[in-house]
Design brief:
Strand 5 and strand 6 form a beta hairpin. Helices cover 13% and strands 26% of the residues. The chain is globular, with a radius of gyration of 15 Å. The strands form two sheets. It has a six-stranded mixed beta sheet, with no helix packed on it. By secondary structure, it is α/β, with parallel strands linked by helices.
């Protein structure tokens, strides 16, 4: 299963050209700049029109109109995850913005959050990640932890057999094979 990870497009998603084809595309939040419903609808229309077998997204701190809401009427291969688990071709995928990380299931293969865990791809001089998330990720041990939020820390790291990916900023992405 080939996975493309993007994040923090801030309503500039239409500027993404020639994205590589994978089985799954995952957006880890900040789909909008100002959090308006119009920005959300514009993103969803674009996202659903992409030619990927599965499409998954969560919201980020800029996506205010999605806080506490669910999205109905998505195509059957498009998933909005907020404290939800889905299973795709044997992979358990859990998505959450932030908050109570105690609910992250222990059988999670791919964890999607907007914020990073503390100390991992979360800032150069100041660490912006979350300590509770860091502890939970090392308990759960997903194969992939996908996030964004800290634009200057785009990249990948493998620690204790967990691949961490920060794909924030327009035009940046990471690809994985599971």
């Amino acid at each position: 299963m080939k996975i493309l990870h993007i994040s923090d497009t801030h309503s500039k998603h239409k500027e993404l050209k020639d994205l590589p084809y994978t089985d799954i595309i995952i957006h880890s939040g900040d789909i909008t700049e100002n959090g308006t419903e119009n920005e959300v609808f514009d993103f969803i229309n674009w996202f659903e029109a992409l030619d990927y077998k599965y499409k998954i997204f969560i919201y980020g701190n800029h996506d205010l109109s999605l806080y506490g809401n669910d999205i109905e009427g998505l195509n059957r291969n498009t998933f909005f995850l907020e404290n939800k688990m889905i299973k795709i071709e044997g992979l358990q995928i859990y998505g959450t913005f932030s908050g109570n990380f105690d609910y992250i299931p222990y059988d999670t293969d791919i964890l999607i959050t907007h914020i990073p865990p503390m100390g991992i791809l979360d800032g150069e001089n100041t660490l912006y990640g979350d300590y509770e998330l860091l502890k939970k990720v090392f308990e759960v041990k997903p194969k992939l932890h996908l996030f964004g939020h800290i634009h200057e820390s785009h990249g990948q790291e493998i620690i204790n057999n967990i691949t961490f990916s920060n794909a924030s900023s327009i035009g940046m992405y990471n690809i994985f094979n599971l």
